[in-house]
Amino acid sequence: GLPAVPGRPLAPRRVSRRLQVGSVAVGGDAPVSVQSMTTTVTADIGATLQQIAELTASGCQIVRVACPSQDDADALPVIAKKSQIPVIADIHFQPKYVFAAIDAGCAAVRVNPGNIRQFDDRVKEIAKAASGAGVPIRIGVNAGSLDKRLLEKYGKATPEALVESALWECSLFEEHGFRDIKISVKHNDPVVMVNAYRQLAARCDYPLHLGVTEAGPAFQGTIKSAVAFGALLSEGIGDTIRVSLSAPPVEEVKVGIQILESLNLRQRRLEIVSCPSCGRAQVDVYKLADQVTAGLEGMEVPLRVAVMGCVVNGPGEAREADLGVASGNGKGQIFVKGEVIKTVPESKIVETLIEEAMNIARRMEDE
Ligand code: SF4
Predict the structure, then answer these.
(1) What's the ipTM?
(2) Among 272, 273, 277, which residue has the most ligand 1 atoms within 8 Å of its CB, making it the best to mutate?
(3) Tens digit of pLDDT for each residue in 98-114?
(4) How far is the C-alpha of 275 from the C-alpha of 324, rounded, in Å?
């Protein structure tokens, strides 16, 4: 086939029902959204709101907060009201917190009716309250907390087991006419996870929340999530994503956004096209690429900036870039759209690139 046209995703989106998580639409033709989860004790309202503000600033669109105790439930009204982005309450076992979250103005609730039912069967009331308040529910099936019955049937958390569990959970709401559902079927193994979501995508039209659970520390978790989300999103599967890292949640958001940008599911912003360096390099490419990245961080316009280690291939290799530098002899050739516009001493490369980036950004905004 033809290579992907820049600006277009790899495949059309799977057709899913559209839900409203507060101000953010999920599913249908709504853009794939990025979410994360706070790591603070939810009852610590100040710390939680502070982290939500940081997440919002980093581009997070939906935030989930855990609600394991009454103190946490009591904090929800203030958090839901003051958060700049929709808040999802994450609840296990306790129906009373589900009602509290709905009353508190949370935009959605993550709860599995299966585990509610084991203790206090109020699934029907939950369906009624959620539908009355226009609050969707995420059913989150996790390899680690799979139903005993299904573990026995399948031997372990196979894709089939995860999907059967998710669809069974859905049926507990469907029997009460409730269908404002999104689903996740998370597993720590990207291959199992991808197979589970593929099967699930084929068997229902609910929007899907992608996640590789317990993906690990930043490096491993980033790779696992990028690979798994990449496989699914490139087939059009996935409506909202959460990267799970054993790292601060802002890092999860950065990774999530980068994954969407890489797949053309979101307008790219700053992109550094830097060479890997080689024996011809006449400058420390890694350091220069880091300095340019840091200097241009936060630029909102889409901009490809090439950082090349030598003048031999520099401008040629980076013709597609908006702006770039090729270094040699203690100098940097600065080029715009592949044309060298000036040569500056090495010490001035970063500031010149920033200056030129600003000029280009200004021209782009004027257009
Ligand atoms: Fe090597 Fe120059 Fe290519 Fe960088 S741009 S990889 S230094 S040939």
Answers:
(1) 0.98
(2) 277
(3) 999 999 999 999 998 88
(4) 11
